[in-house]
Amino acid sequence: MDSSTVTRLFRRLANHHFCHDRTRALPRTARQHAGSIRNLSSAPRDPTDGSSWQQRTDNFPSDKTNEYQRYPVLTADALRTRRERPRRVKMLLRDFVEDSLYNPHYGYFSKNVTIFHPGMPFEFDKIKDEPELQKILGHRYTQFEDKLDEIEQSDTRQLWHTPTELFRPFYGEAIARYMVANYKLSLYPYHDLLIYEMGAGNGTLMLDILDYIRNTDPEVYARTKFRIIEVSSALATLQMNKLKTDVASKGHLGKVEIVNKSIFDWDSYISTPCFFLAMEVFDNFAHDVIRYDLVTKEPLQGSVLIDSQGDFYEFYSRKLDPIAARYLRLREKASQNRKYSTPVRDPGFMQTLRYKLPFAPNLTVPEYIPTRLMQFFHILHTKFPAHRLITTDFHSLPQATVGYNAPVVQTRYQRRTVLVRTPLVQQGYFDIMFPTDFGVMEDMYRAITGRLSRVMTHETFFQRWAYAEDTQLRSGENALLNWYKNQSVMLTV
Protein backbone atom coordinates (compact mmCIF):
# COMPACT_ATOMS: atom_id res chain seq x y z
CA MET A 1 0.00 0.00 0.00
CA ASP A 2 1.55 3.32 -1.08
CA SER A 3 1.87 6.30 1.24
CA SER A 4 -1.00 8.28 -0.28
CA THR A 5 -3.37 5.32 0.21
CA VAL A 6 -2.19 4.93 3.80
CA THR A 7 -2.79 8.60 4.46
CA ARG A 8 -6.33 8.40 3.06
CA LEU A 9 -7.00 5.30 5.16
CA PHE A 10 -6.04 6.93 8.42
CA ARG A 11 -7.76 10.21 7.61
CA ARG A 12 -10.91 8.22 6.97
CA LEU A 13 -10.39 6.30 10.20
CA ALA A 14 -9.95 9.49 12.18
CA ASN A 15 -13.28 10.81 10.89
CA HIS A 16 -15.25 7.83 12.17
CA HIS A 17 -17.04 8.23 15.47
CA PHE A 18 -15.61 4.96 16.78
CA CYS A 19 -12.01 6.16 16.59
CA HIS A 20 -10.27 7.04 19.85
CA ASP A 21 -6.94 8.82 19.76
CA ARG A 22 -4.85 7.77 22.76
CA THR A 23 -1.80 9.99 22.68
CA ARG A 24 -0.47 8.57 25.91
CA ALA A 25 -1.18 4.88 25.26
CA LEU A 26 1.75 2.68 26.17
CA PRO A 27 3.38 0.10 23.90
CA ARG A 28 1.57 -3.17 23.31
CA THR A 29 2.62 -5.20 26.32
CA ALA A 30 2.82 -2.32 28.75
CA ARG A 31 -0.95 -1.85 28.51
CA GLN A 32 -1.64 -3.32 31.95
CA HIS A 33 0.51 -0.76 33.68
CA ALA A 34 -1.37 2.02 31.91
CA GLY A 35 -4.63 0.82 33.38
CA SER A 36 -3.11 -0.16 36.67
CA ILE A 37 -4.59 -21.17 13.52
CA ARG A 38 -5.75 -26.85 10.57
CA ASN A 39 -5.98 -30.26 11.89
CA LEU A 40 -9.69 -30.01 12.49
CA SER A 41 -11.92 -29.61 9.47
CA SER A 42 -11.93 -26.00 8.29
CA ALA A 43 -13.82 -26.40 5.02
CA PRO A 44 -15.85 -23.30 4.17
CA ARG A 45 -19.54 -23.51 4.85
CA ASP A 46 -22.17 -21.73 2.82
CA PRO A 47 -23.98 -19.50 5.28
CA THR A 48 -26.66 -18.35 2.82
CA ASP A 49 -29.32 -20.57 4.34
CA GLY A 50 -32.23 -18.22 4.80
CA SER A 51 -31.53 -17.75 8.51
CA SER A 52 -28.69 -15.28 8.01
CA TRP A 53 -29.24 -11.87 9.55
CA GLN A 54 -27.49 -8.63 8.83
CA GLN A 55 -26.88 -7.29 12.30
CA ARG A 56 -28.88 -4.19 13.14
CA THR A 57 -26.57 -1.54 14.54
CA ASP A 58 -26.66 2.06 15.59
CA ASN A 59 -25.22 3.01 12.20
CA PHE A 60 -28.08 1.54 10.13
CA PRO A 61 -25.78 0.24 7.36
CA SER A 62 -26.84 -0.32 3.77
CA ASP A 63 -28.74 -3.52 3.12
CA LYS A 64 -26.17 -5.94 1.69
CA THR A 65 -28.36 -9.06 1.63
CA ASN A 66 -28.20 -9.44 -2.17
CA GLU A 67 -24.42 -9.27 -2.16
CA TYR A 68 -24.30 -11.71 0.74
CA GLN A 69 -26.29 -14.23 -1.29
CA ARG A 70 -24.02 -13.85 -4.36
CA TYR A 71 -20.51 -13.56 -2.96
CA PRO A 72 -18.35 -16.71 -2.54
CA VAL A 73 -17.16 -18.00 0.84
CA LEU A 74 -13.38 -17.84 1.33
CA THR A 75 -11.05 -19.01 4.09
CA ALA A 76 -7.75 -17.58 5.27
CA ASP A 77 -6.04 -20.61 3.70
CA ALA A 78 -7.52 -19.75 0.30
CA LEU A 79 -6.18 -16.20 0.61
CA ARG A 80 -2.58 -17.12 1.39
CA THR A 81 -1.41 -16.67 -2.20
CA ARG A 82 -3.38 -13.47 -2.70
CA ARG A 83 -1.32 -10.29 -2.75
CA GLU A 84 -4.32 -7.97 -2.72
CA ARG A 85 -6.88 -7.65 0.02
CA PRO A 86 -10.06 -9.45 -1.03
CA ARG A 87 -13.29 -7.81 -2.17
CA ARG A 88 -16.72 -9.20 -3.09
CA VAL A 89 -16.30 -12.13 -0.69
CA LYS A 90 -17.60 -13.33 2.67
CA MET A 91 -15.79 -15.26 5.37
CA LEU A 92 -16.15 -16.34 8.97
CA LEU A 93 -14.72 -13.86 11.45
CA ARG A 94 -11.91 -16.25 12.43
CA ASP A 95 -10.77 -16.36 8.79
CA PHE A 96 -10.99 -12.58 8.53
CA VAL A 97 -8.88 -12.14 11.68
CA GLU A 98 -6.33 -14.75 10.63
CA ASP A 99 -6.02 -13.23 7.16
CA SER A 100 -5.64 -9.77 8.69
CA LEU A 101 -2.87 -10.87 11.04
CA TYR A 102 -1.01 -13.62 9.16
CA ASN A 103 -1.51 -13.29 5.39
CA PRO A 104 2.04 -13.68 3.96
CA HIS A 105 1.70 -10.63 1.70
CA TYR A 106 -0.26 -8.04 3.66
CA GLY A 107 -0.78 -9.49 7.15
CA TYR A 108 0.05 -7.53 10.26
CA PHE A 109 2.76 -9.90 11.51
CA SER A 110 4.12 -10.55 8.02
CA LYS A 111 4.80 -6.98 6.95
CA ASN A 112 4.17 -4.24 9.44
CA VAL A 113 5.52 -5.28 12.84
CA THR A 114 8.79 -4.21 14.42
CA ILE A 115 9.58 -5.57 17.87
CA PHE A 116 11.31 -3.07 20.12
CA HIS A 117 14.74 -4.00 21.42
CA PRO A 118 15.96 -1.74 24.24
CA GLY A 119 19.67 -2.28 23.65
CA MET A 120 21.62 -2.96 26.80
CA PRO A 121 19.60 -4.57 29.62
CA PHE A 122 18.17 -2.15 32.15
CA GLU A 123 20.17 -1.79 35.37
CA PHE A 124 17.12 -2.03 37.59
CA ASP A 125 19.03 -1.59 40.85
CA LYS A 126 20.16 1.86 39.70
CA ILE A 127 16.69 3.11 38.74
CA LYS A 128 14.86 5.12 41.37
CA ASP A 129 11.25 3.99 40.88
CA GLU A 130 8.64 2.97 38.32
CA PRO A 131 8.02 6.49 36.94
CA GLU A 132 11.74 6.82 36.22
CA LEU A 133 11.74 3.40 34.55
CA GLN A 134 8.80 4.51 32.38
CA LYS A 135 10.70 7.65 31.43
CA ILE A 136 13.83 5.68 30.50
CA LEU A 137 11.74 3.20 28.52
CA GLY A 138 10.05 6.04 26.61
CA HIS A 139 13.43 7.60 25.84
CA ARG A 140 14.79 4.32 24.49
CA TYR A 141 11.66 3.90 22.38
CA THR A 142 12.27 7.32 20.82
CA GLN A 143 15.93 6.53 20.15
CA PHE A 144 15.04 3.14 18.66
CA GLU A 145 12.44 4.60 16.30
CA ASP A 146 14.62 7.56 15.34
CA LYS A 147 17.27 5.11 14.13
CA LEU A 148 14.66 3.23 12.12
CA ASP A 149 13.47 6.48 10.55
CA GLU A 150 17.03 7.24 9.44
CA ILE A 151 16.87 4.08 7.33
CA GLU A 152 13.24 4.35 6.22
CA GLN A 153 10.58 6.65 7.59
CA SER A 154 7.13 5.16 8.15
CA ASP A 155 3.98 6.75 9.53
CA THR A 156 2.41 3.33 10.07
CA ARG A 157 5.24 1.44 11.77
CA GLN A 158 3.79 -1.02 14.31
CA LEU A 159 6.17 -1.05 17.24
CA TRP A 160 5.74 -2.86 20.55
CA HIS A 161 7.73 -4.76 23.11
CA THR A 162 7.48 -7.98 25.07
CA PRO A 163 8.41 -8.69 28.70
CA THR A 164 11.21 -10.85 27.31
CA GLU A 165 12.84 -7.75 25.80
CA LEU A 166 12.07 -5.46 28.72
CA PHE A 167 13.36 -7.80 31.45
CA ARG A 168 16.15 -9.55 29.60
CA PRO A 169 17.93 -11.67 30.54
CA PHE A 170 16.08 -12.27 33.80
CA TYR A 171 12.73 -13.19 32.25
CA GLY A 172 14.29 -15.88 30.05
CA GLU A 173 16.44 -17.12 32.91
CA ALA A 174 13.34 -17.75 35.04
CA ILE A 175 11.74 -19.80 32.23
CA ALA A 176 15.00 -21.73 31.80
CA ARG A 177 15.27 -22.35 35.54
CA TYR A 178 11.76 -23.82 35.59
CA MET A 179 12.46 -26.11 32.61
CA VAL A 180 15.84 -27.35 33.85
CA ALA A 181 14.45 -28.12 37.31
CA ASN A 182 11.54 -30.12 35.88
CA TYR A 183 13.73 -31.77 33.25
CA LYS A 184 16.15 -33.01 35.90
CA LEU A 185 13.32 -34.14 38.12
CA SER A 186 11.63 -36.48 35.64
CA LEU A 187 13.41 -36.73 32.27
CA TYR A 188 17.18 -36.60 32.83
CA PRO A 189 19.23 -38.60 31.86
CA TYR A 190 16.82 -40.69 29.77
CA HIS A 191 15.80 -37.92 27.37
CA ASP A 192 17.33 -34.80 25.86
CA LEU A 193 16.01 -31.39 26.86
CA LEU A 194 13.88 -30.62 23.79
CA ILE A 195 12.32 -27.16 23.68
CA TYR A 196 9.83 -25.84 21.13
CA GLU A 197 8.94 -22.17 21.00
CA MET A 198 6.05 -20.89 18.93
CA GLY A 199 6.23 -17.27 17.74
CA ALA A 200 9.71 -16.37 18.97
CA GLY A 201 9.72 -12.69 17.96
CA ASN A 202 13.27 -11.35 17.85
CA GLY A 203 14.65 -14.65 19.21
CA THR A 204 15.62 -13.02 22.51
CA LEU A 205 13.93 -15.58 24.75
CA MET A 206 15.67 -18.40 22.91
CA LEU A 207 19.11 -16.81 23.41
CA ASP A 208 18.51 -15.96 27.06
CA ILE A 209 17.38 -19.54 27.79
CA LEU A 210 20.33 -21.09 25.97
CA ASP A 211 22.82 -18.68 27.55
CA TYR A 212 21.54 -19.52 31.03
CA ILE A 213 21.67 -23.30 30.53
CA ARG A 214 25.15 -23.12 28.99
CA ASN A 215 26.45 -20.98 31.85
CA THR A 216 24.86 -22.85 34.76
CA ASP A 217 24.55 -26.50 33.69
CA PRO A 218 26.92 -27.61 30.89
CA GLU A 219 25.78 -31.23 31.15
CA VAL A 220 22.18 -30.28 30.48
CA TYR A 221 23.26 -27.84 27.77
CA ALA A 222 25.07 -30.67 25.96
CA ARG A 223 21.69 -32.42 25.66
CA THR A 224 19.60 -29.34 24.82
CA LYS A 225 17.84 -28.83 21.48
CA PHE A 226 15.79 -25.74 20.66
CA ARG A 227 13.28 -25.57 17.80
CA ILE A 228 11.38 -22.44 16.82
CA ILE A 229 8.07 -22.64 14.95
CA GLU A 230 7.66 -19.27 13.24
CA VAL A 231 4.89 -18.35 10.80
CA SER A 232 6.53 -15.09 9.69
CA SER A 233 9.33 -15.44 7.12
CA ALA A 234 10.71 -12.04 8.09
CA LEU A 235 10.91 -12.96 11.78
CA ALA A 236 12.38 -16.40 10.98
CA THR A 237 15.17 -14.63 9.07
CA LEU A 238 15.66 -12.17 11.91
CA GLN A 239 15.94 -14.99 14.45
CA MET A 240 18.58 -16.78 12.39
CA ASN A 241 20.53 -13.57 11.88
CA LYS A 242 20.46 -12.92 15.61
CA LEU A 243 22.07 -16.31 16.18
CA LYS A 244 24.97 -15.12 14.03
CA THR A 245 25.51 -11.66 15.50
CA ASP A 246 28.30 -12.44 17.95
CA VAL A 247 30.57 -15.23 19.09
CA ALA A 248 28.42 -16.14 22.09
CA SER A 249 25.27 -16.48 19.98
CA LYS A 250 27.08 -18.39 17.23
CA GLY A 251 27.91 -21.01 19.81
CA HIS A 252 24.21 -21.93 19.91
CA LEU A 253 23.85 -22.51 16.15
CA GLY A 254 24.17 -26.26 16.42
CA LYS A 255 21.44 -26.32 19.06
CA VAL A 256 18.78 -24.40 17.14
CA GLU A 257 16.43 -25.25 14.28
CA ILE A 258 13.98 -22.67 12.91
CA VAL A 259 10.90 -24.08 11.19
CA ASN A 260 9.20 -21.41 9.09
CA LYS A 261 5.59 -22.55 9.11
CA SER A 262 2.36 -22.11 11.00
CA ILE A 263 1.77 -24.42 13.92
CA PHE A 264 -1.58 -25.17 12.26
CA ASP A 265 0.30 -26.67 9.28
CA TRP A 266 2.38 -28.93 11.53
CA ASP A 267 2.44 -32.50 10.18
CA SER A 268 5.29 -34.21 12.09
CA TYR A 269 4.68 -36.56 15.02
CA ILE A 270 6.93 -35.72 17.98
CA SER A 271 6.83 -38.61 20.43
CA THR A 272 9.76 -37.38 22.53
CA PRO A 273 8.98 -35.49 25.75
CA CYS A 274 9.38 -31.77 25.14
CA PHE A 275 8.66 -28.36 26.63
CA PHE A 276 6.42 -26.21 24.44
CA LEU A 277 6.67 -22.44 24.92
CA ALA A 278 3.74 -20.26 23.83
CA MET A 279 4.47 -16.85 25.28
CA GLU A 280 1.91 -14.17 24.46
CA VAL A 281 0.58 -15.92 21.35
CA PHE A 282 -2.94 -16.85 22.46
CA ASP A 283 -3.99 -13.20 22.27
CA ASN A 284 -3.44 -13.17 18.50
CA PHE A 285 -5.17 -16.48 17.77
CA ALA A 286 -8.21 -15.99 15.55
CA HIS A 287 -11.62 -16.13 17.23
CA ASP A 288 -15.14 -16.70 15.98
CA VAL A 289 -17.95 -14.37 16.97
CA ILE A 290 -21.28 -15.52 18.36
CA ARG A 291 -24.43 -13.56 19.10
CA TYR A 292 -27.53 -15.04 20.68
CA ASP A 293 -31.20 -14.82 19.80
CA LEU A 294 -32.81 -12.71 22.51
CA VAL A 295 -35.87 -14.98 22.72
CA THR A 296 -34.63 -18.53 22.13
CA LYS A 297 -31.05 -17.99 23.42
CA GLU A 298 -29.88 -19.83 20.28
CA PRO A 299 -26.32 -19.00 19.14
CA LEU A 300 -25.74 -17.44 15.71
CA GLN A 301 -22.31 -17.36 14.11
CA GLY A 302 -20.86 -14.21 12.57
CA SER A 303 -19.49 -13.75 9.08
CA VAL A 304 -17.89 -10.75 7.42
CA LEU A 305 -18.99 -9.48 4.02
CA ILE A 306 -16.44 -7.41 2.10
CA ASP A 307 -18.16 -5.45 -0.65
CA SER A 308 -16.80 -4.06 -3.93
CA GLN A 309 -15.53 -0.95 -2.14
CA GLY A 310 -13.68 -2.93 0.52
CA ASP A 311 -16.17 -2.01 3.26
CA PHE A 312 -17.14 -4.56 5.92
CA TYR A 313 -20.57 -5.75 7.09
CA GLU A 314 -21.59 -8.26 9.76
CA PHE A 315 -23.97 -11.13 9.03
CA TYR A 316 -25.14 -13.83 11.42
CA SER A 317 -26.38 -17.35 10.68
CA ARG A 318 -28.19 -19.91 12.82
CA LYS A 319 -26.17 -22.61 11.07
CA LEU A 320 -22.91 -23.00 12.99
CA ASP A 321 -19.86 -24.37 11.22
CA PRO A 322 -18.42 -27.61 12.73
CA ILE A 323 -15.53 -25.91 14.54
CA ALA A 324 -17.61 -23.32 16.35
CA ALA A 325 -20.28 -25.93 17.16
CA ARG A 326 -17.63 -28.23 18.60
CA TYR A 327 -16.20 -25.46 20.74
CA LEU A 328 -19.58 -24.65 22.28
CA ARG A 329 -20.32 -28.34 22.95
CA LEU A 330 -16.89 -28.95 24.47
CA ARG A 331 -17.05 -25.87 26.65
CA GLU A 332 -20.47 -26.85 27.94
CA LYS A 333 -19.16 -30.28 28.90
CA ALA A 334 -15.65 -29.42 30.09
CA SER A 335 -16.65 -26.36 32.13
CA GLN A 336 -19.94 -27.60 33.52
CA ASN A 337 -18.72 -27.08 37.08
CA ARG A 338 -17.24 -23.65 36.40
CA LYS A 339 -19.07 -20.35 36.33
CA TYR A 340 -18.25 -18.43 33.18
CA SER A 341 -19.92 -15.48 31.51
CA THR A 342 -21.81 -15.33 28.21
CA PRO A 343 -24.35 -12.79 26.94
CA VAL A 344 -27.24 -15.13 27.85
CA ARG A 345 -25.92 -16.33 31.20
CA ASP A 346 -25.56 -12.97 32.90
CA PRO A 347 -26.72 -10.14 30.64
CA GLY A 348 -27.26 -7.71 33.49
CA PHE A 349 -30.17 -5.37 34.13
CA MET A 350 -29.00 -2.45 31.97
CA GLN A 351 -28.21 -4.68 29.02
CA THR A 352 -31.59 -6.41 29.29
CA LEU A 353 -33.28 -3.00 29.39
CA ARG A 354 -31.33 -1.84 26.34
CA TYR A 355 -32.67 -4.74 24.26
CA LYS A 356 -36.24 -3.56 24.94
CA LEU A 357 -35.70 -0.02 23.69
CA PRO A 358 -36.96 1.14 20.26
CA PHE A 359 -34.56 0.31 17.42
CA ALA A 360 -32.61 -1.96 19.78
CA PRO A 361 -30.28 -4.59 18.31
CA ASN A 362 -32.00 -7.81 17.27
CA LEU A 363 -29.29 -9.99 18.86
CA THR A 364 -27.17 -9.86 22.01
CA VAL A 365 -23.79 -8.23 22.19
CA PRO A 366 -21.08 -10.38 20.60
CA GLU A 367 -19.15 -13.13 22.33
CA TYR A 368 -15.74 -14.00 20.87
CA ILE A 369 -14.85 -17.69 21.20
CA PRO A 370 -11.24 -18.97 20.84
CA THR A 371 -11.77 -21.66 18.21
CA ARG A 372 -8.17 -21.41 16.99
CA LEU A 373 -6.92 -22.02 20.52
CA MET A 374 -9.07 -25.14 20.70
CA GLN A 375 -7.43 -26.32 17.46
CA PHE A 376 -4.00 -25.59 18.92
CA PHE A 377 -4.74 -27.82 21.91
CA HIS A 378 -5.80 -30.53 19.46
CA ILE A 379 -2.43 -30.23 17.66
CA LEU A 380 -0.57 -30.53 20.95
CA HIS A 381 -2.57 -33.67 21.73
CA THR A 382 -2.14 -35.36 18.33
CA LYS A 383 1.34 -34.16 17.26
CA PHE A 384 3.12 -33.52 20.59
CA PRO A 385 1.53 -36.08 22.94
CA ALA A 386 4.38 -35.89 25.49
CA HIS A 387 4.53 -32.09 25.59
CA ARG A 388 4.71 -29.88 28.64
CA LEU A 389 3.08 -26.55 27.86
CA ILE A 390 4.41 -23.29 29.28
CA THR A 391 2.25 -20.36 28.30
CA THR A 392 1.59 -16.84 29.52
CA ASP A 393 -0.92 -14.33 28.23
CA PHE A 394 -3.44 -11.66 29.16
CA HIS A 395 -6.52 -12.69 31.11
CA SER A 396 -7.95 -9.19 30.77
CA LEU A 397 -7.38 -6.22 28.49
CA PRO A 398 -8.39 -2.61 29.11
CA GLN A 399 -10.02 -0.51 26.37
CA ALA A 400 -11.45 -3.56 24.59
CA THR A 401 -14.25 -3.42 22.04
CA VAL A 402 -17.83 -4.21 23.06
CA GLY A 403 -18.68 -7.80 23.92
CA TYR A 404 -17.64 -10.83 25.94
CA ASN A 405 -13.99 -11.85 25.61
CA ALA A 406 -13.78 -8.92 23.18
CA PRO A 407 -10.49 -7.83 21.60
CA VAL A 408 -8.46 -4.68 21.80
CA VAL A 409 -8.02 -3.39 18.25
CA GLN A 410 -5.32 -0.80 17.75
CA THR A 411 -2.77 0.59 15.33
CA ARG A 412 -0.03 3.20 15.37
CA TYR A 413 0.03 6.26 13.15
CA GLN A 414 2.80 8.84 13.32
CA ARG A 415 4.00 7.27 16.60
CA ARG A 416 0.57 7.64 18.22
CA THR A 417 -1.61 4.73 19.26
CA VAL A 418 -5.14 4.68 17.82
CA LEU A 419 -7.80 2.35 19.24
CA VAL A 420 -11.01 1.46 17.42
CA ARG A 421 -14.24 -0.20 18.47
CA THR A 422 -14.47 -3.02 15.93
CA PRO A 423 -12.26 -5.88 14.67
CA LEU A 424 -13.54 -5.24 11.12
CA VAL A 425 -10.60 -3.08 10.11
CA GLN A 426 -8.18 -2.67 7.21
CA GLN A 427 -6.34 -6.00 6.97
CA GLY A 428 -2.73 -5.89 8.06
CA TYR A 429 -2.65 -2.48 9.72
CA PHE A 430 -4.22 -3.32 13.09
CA ASP A 431 -3.24 -5.51 16.00
CA ILE A 432 -6.27 -7.58 17.09
CA MET A 433 -5.68 -8.94 20.60
CA PHE A 434 -8.04 -11.14 22.61
CA PRO A 435 -7.94 -11.87 26.35
CA THR A 436 -7.86 -15.50 27.48
CA ASP A 437 -10.27 -16.95 30.04
CA PHE A 438 -7.68 -19.21 31.65
CA GLY A 439 -10.25 -21.03 33.77
CA VAL A 440 -12.26 -22.18 30.76
CA MET A 441 -9.13 -22.75 28.68
CA GLU A 442 -7.64 -24.97 31.37
CA ASP A 443 -10.84 -27.04 31.29
CA MET A 444 -10.64 -27.22 27.49
CA TYR A 445 -6.94 -28.11 27.56
CA ARG A 446 -7.50 -30.94 30.02
CA ALA A 447 -10.52 -32.26 28.07
CA ILE A 448 -8.65 -32.27 24.73
CA THR A 449 -5.17 -33.41 25.78
CA GLY A 450 -5.91 -35.46 28.88
CA ARG A 451 -3.02 -33.69 30.61
CA LEU A 452 -3.09 -32.09 34.03
CA SER A 453 -2.31 -28.41 34.29
CA ARG A 454 -1.97 -25.53 36.69
CA VAL A 455 -2.87 -21.87 36.28
CA MET A 456 -1.29 -19.13 38.36
CA THR A 457 -0.73 -15.42 38.15
CA HIS A 458 2.27 -13.96 36.37
CA GLU A 459 3.45 -12.59 39.69
CA THR A 460 3.24 -15.97 41.44
CA PHE A 461 5.27 -17.76 38.76
CA PHE A 462 8.07 -15.20 38.66
CA GLN A 463 8.20 -14.86 42.44
CA ARG A 464 9.05 -18.53 42.51
CA TRP A 465 11.32 -18.92 39.49
CA ALA A 466 12.97 -15.53 38.98
CA TYR A 467 15.53 -13.96 41.27
CA ALA A 468 13.30 -11.06 42.23
CA GLU A 469 16.20 -8.89 43.37
CA ASP A 470 17.43 -8.71 39.76
CA THR A 471 14.45 -6.54 38.75
CA GLN A 472 13.92 -4.62 41.98
CA LEU A 473 14.18 -0.83 41.83
CA ARG A 474 15.76 1.35 44.49
CA SER A 475 12.28 2.22 45.79
CA GLY A 476 11.61 -1.45 46.50
CA GLU A 477 9.16 -1.72 43.61
CA ASN A 478 9.59 -4.70 41.31
CA ALA A 479 8.62 -4.01 37.71
CA LEU A 480 8.68 -7.66 36.61
CA LEU A 481 6.08 -8.49 39.24
CA ASN A 482 4.05 -5.28 39.12
CA TRP A 483 3.64 -4.53 35.42
CA TYR A 484 1.87 -7.70 34.32
CA LYS A 485 -0.87 -8.25 36.85
CA ASN A 486 -3.34 -8.85 34.00
CA GLN A 487 -1.35 -11.88 32.84
CA SER A 488 -1.68 -15.53 33.86
CA VAL A 489 0.62 -18.51 33.39
CA MET A 490 -0.57 -22.03 32.54
CA LEU A 491 1.73 -25.03 32.96
CA THR A 492 1.41 -28.73 32.21
CA VAL A 493 2.15 -30.67 35.39
Automatic annotation (TrEMBL):
Gene Ontology CC: one annotated term: mitochondrion
Family classification: Belongs to the NDUFAF7 family.
One GO BP: methylation
Compartments it resides in: Mitochondrion
Entry-linked PANTHER family: PROTEIN ARGININE METHYLTRANSFERASE NDUFAF7 HOMOLOG, MITOCHONDRIAL (PTHR12049:SF5), PROTEIN ARGININE METHYLTRANSFERASE NDUFAF7, MITOCHONDRIAL (PTHR12049)
Record key words, sorted: Methyltransferase, Mitochondrion, Transferase
UniProt-annotated stretches for the region Disordered: 24-67
Biased composition (Polar residues): 49-63
One GO MF term: protein-arginine omega-N symmetric methyltransferase activity
Keyword Translocase: no
The enzyme's E.C. designation: 2.1.1.320
Protein name per its UniProtKB record: Protein arginine methyltransferase NDUFAF7
Purpose of the protein: Arginine methyltransferase involved in the assembly or stability of mitochondrial NADH:ubiquinone oxidoreductase complex (complex I).
Location (main, coarse): mitochondrion
Catalytic activity: L-arginyl-[protein] + 2 S-adenosyl-L-methionine = N(omega),N(omega)'-dimethyl-L-arginyl-[protein] + 2 S-adenosyl-L-homocysteine + 2 H(+)
Lineage: Eukaryota, Fungi, Dikarya, Ascomycota, Pezizomycotina
Keyword Protein biosynthesis attributed: no
Top-level enzyme category: transferase
